[in-house]
Design brief:
Layout (H helix, E strand, L loop, with lengths): L22 H12 L2 E2 L11 H13 L12 H15 L9 E4 L1 H13 L5 E6 L3 H10 L2 E6 L1 E3 L2 E3 L2 H7 L4 E7 L11 H13 L3 E5 L25 E6 L1 H4 L7 E4 L2 H11 L8 H10 L4 H25 L2 E3 L6 E5 L8 H12 L1 E2 L1 E2 L7 H4 L2 E5 L4 H11 L5
Parallel strand pairs: 1-13, 3-4, 3-7, 7-8, 8-9
Antiparallel strand pairs: 2-10, 5-6, 9-10, 11-12, 12-15, 14-15
Helix pairs in contact: 1-12, 2-10, 3-10, 4-5, 4-9, 11-14
Length: 396
């Protein structure tokens, strides 16, 4: 009877039956057991700015946030989020009615979907997708409708005709991620304008995950969808501090949206964590006001790291899709004579002492993602150089 009730009904809610232990847990365990360099899970191996860390220590010592913070988030952080959106994008929000602080972007996504989606509603997501999207849609009782990004001219591209064709009378919401994890694609102004027109035409809500907003490279530009005509009142914009400031364990995220949308999302969020990360909220408020030079240096550092790992992967024989954003690289294993990314990633630690993530786990159409694997480059340069050296064993 292990794992079953007396009625033989499975213990796990059937909506979550397809979601077992995440691939990240499996690959991280493999990294530990083999002593491999872990380029699987996307977290930095160094902390972010010292002044931001000290701001958290100062808040702890001053007793700010050690008890429950306000439900919507501390006023200082909500004001800082508003100032950031205005300064970077010219988007004006009311800190009291149009901002909600969450336990990272992951909770913001969960709360938004639980609030806005009912059983039977269809949710369109770009695949490959961050794995929590599928689980959150399932928990809300929605139906996942994937639209596949496909490789073309060195990048993964959205087919706007395919997106339009995916919209039905049951479509409630578009769930977008740009810059996009895991492909590194950054949607262009023209693509975003077309998505905005579609959302207005079909009266769709949109949830945008913009956690990599400050990590765009080369000629790419991050443009919030909420800045397009007709989108401010129908878009829930989500971002967080973890990726931008390299404090992923703090789990501080935020939602900006119209008062009606924020009220809806807060109604769900208050029964998830209620509140979280009290002292860290004050520190992130200070982080958001760092000078532009911080963001420029952060991007330049990550660009150099991207190029180290991309060059190493190319030397090892992979086809490499150099990302326009995020801190992940997608590589095609077929030039190495391989076709199954999951099997490849399970043997890579023994073969080369490096851990990656098979991209197929982020697809409904597993065959579309089968030959692709994802590497994280948010590590110290010497770690990436060592990984590049180890990966050369694959081309011998």
């Amino acid at each position: 009877m292990t794992g079953m009730t007396s009625s033989s009904r499975p213990l796990l809610n059937r909506r979550l039956a397809e979601f077992g232990t995440t691939i990240f847990a499996e690959m991280s365990a493999l990294a530990l057991s083999t002593g491999s360099i872990n380029l699987g899970q996307g977290f930095p191996d160094t902390d972010g700015p010292e002044e931001v860390r000290e701001a958290a220590v100062r808040a702890l010592r001053d007793g700010r946030g050690n008890q429950y913070p306000p439900g919507p988030g501390v006023p200082e952080l909500r004001a800082a989020v508003v100032a950031h959106q205005e300064r970077r994008y010219g988007l004006a929000y009311d800190p009291d009615t149009e901002v909600l602080i969450t336990a990272g972007a992951t909770e913001a996504i969960a709360a938004a979907l639980l609030a806005l989606v009912e059983p039977g509603d269809e949710v369109i997501a770009l695949e490959p997708y961050y794995d929590s999207y599928a689980a959150c849609i399932a928990m809300a009782g929605g139906t996942r409708v994937p639209v596949t990004l496909r490789p073309h001219d060195g990048a993964f591209r959205l087919d706007l005709d395919e997106l339009r064709a995916a919209v039905t009378d049951r479509t409630r919401l578009l769930l977008l991620n740009t810059p996009h994890n895991p492909t590194g694609t950054v949607l262009t102004r023209a693509e975003l304008a077309a998505i905005a027109e579609l959302a207005v035409e079909r009266d769709l809500l949109v949830v945008t995950d913009e956690v990599y907003e400050h990590l765009v490279f080369d000629d790419a530009e991050h443009i919030p969808l909420a800045s397009f005509p007709g989108m401010r009142e129908r878009t829930v914009t989500i971002s967080s501090a973890g990726k931008t400031y390299s404090f992923t364990g703090w789990k501080v995220g935020w939602v900006t949206a119209s008062p009606a949308l924020v009220t809806a999302v807060r109604s769900a969020k208050q029964y998830l964590t209620y509140v979280s990360a009290g002292p860290f909220q004050y520190a992130v408020a200070e982080a958001l006001s760092l000078p532009d030079s911080y963001f420029a240096e952060f991007r330049a550092d990550m660009l150099a790291k991207r190029n180290i790992l991309a060059g190493g992967l190319e030397e090892a024989g992979f086809t490499v899709y150099r990302p326009a954003g995020t801190y992940f690289i997608t590589a095609d294993i077929r030039p190495l004579g391989e076709t199954d990314g999951i099997a490849f990633c399970r043997t890579l630690p023994e073969r080369a002492g490096v851990v990656a993530i098979p991209t197929a786990v982020f697809y409904d159409h597993r065959d579309q993602g089968a030959p692709f694997v994802r590497f994280a480059f948010c590590k110290q340069a010497h770690v990436l150089e060592e990984a590049a050296t180890r990966l050369k064993a694959l081309s011998v």
